[in-house]
Amino acid sequence: MPHHNSVLHGLLKLIPWSTFDDLVDKHGADARVRRLNTKS
User: pTM for the complete prediction?
Assistant: First the structure.
């Protein structure tokens, strides 16, 4: 069975990591994360 990337993966490929990190910090997305952060 061939591997297919998700739609989310396709969208994230369009966003630079620096912009992604800025958005995570701005919205506090990793504030209470213990194990699986947003980059993971």
Answer: 0.64
